[in-house]
Amino acid sequence: DPHTQAILALRGKILNVERARLDKALGNREVQAMIQAFGTGIGEDFDIEKARYHKIVLMADADVDGQHITTLLLTLLFRYMRGLIEAGFVYLAMPPLYRLKWSNSAHEYVFSDTERDALLKHGLDNGKRIPKDAGIQRYKGLGEMNAKELWETTMDHSTRTLRQVTIEDAAAADEIFSVLMGEDVESRRSFIQRNAKDVRFLDI
């Protein structure tokens, strides 16, 4: 909706600002584009009163690559524009990972393998049918969706799902960002080993 929405397409590589000095971050084209669009400035020059938007939605693919890009973007915001998160202006779009196209009912979107399996079982148990070859579509990226699907799942205010980004414990968040995005390989390995049992979605 051009009256209420604007899209900033990030086509280049998102810089890992956890590993880069501020001067290098400022030299990155994608970082420059976000600073200009948000209007708040960055680092010591940050001013929340100058924010041009009060709802910034990070949109990336639903797979692991998309999650990596989202983490890089959140690292940038956490390090240098944390006030946007603290003000409640930052959201994550939740694009679906699968579309289930029923033969005798409206199609449905799900966000994980677990949801797909549960919805498929529930539908079949209740008399729904699904085409043998084209019933389940897995989206590898937002670019695979046509304009109608993208609007319906990710852009339409009445049907999309957003998750607000909050910082309940800044110290814990800072530690997580440092471990996952920093250069200390051993700390990152230890974190992964400690939390591997909690992984519910793995895309290989």
Structure description:
With 204 residues, the protein is mainly α. It folds into two domains: 22-95 and 161-191, Rossmann fold, CATH 3.40.50; 98-138, 2-Layer Sandwich (Dna Ligase, domain 1), CATH 3.30.1490. It is 40% helix and 9% strand. It is built from eight helices and six strands, in the order H-H-E-H-H-E-E-E-H-E-H-E-H-H. The strands form two sheets. A three-stranded mixed β-sheet has the order 1-2-6, with no helix packed on it. Strands 4-3-5 form a three-stranded antiparallel β-sheet, with helices on one face. The chain is globular and about 60 Å long. The protein starts with 21 loop residues before the first helix and ends in a 9-residue tail after the last helix. 16% of the residues are buried.
Helix content: 40-55%
Rg value: 19 Å
Tally of individual helices: 8
- Written as H for each helix and E for each strand, in order along the chain, the element string is HHEHHEEEHEHEHH
Distance between the termini: 35 Å
Q: Which residues sit in consecutive blocks of at least 5 with pLDDT less than 50?
A: 197-204
CATH architecture of the largest domain: 3-Layer(aba) Sandwich
Give me the CATH fold name of the largest domain: Rossmann fold
Oligomeric grouping of the chains: single chain
Largest sheet report: 3 strands, mixed
Family: Belongs to the type II topoisomerase GyrB family.
Catalytic activity: ATP-dependent breakage, passage and rejoining of double-stranded DNA
EC number: 5.6.2.2
Domain Toprim: 1-96
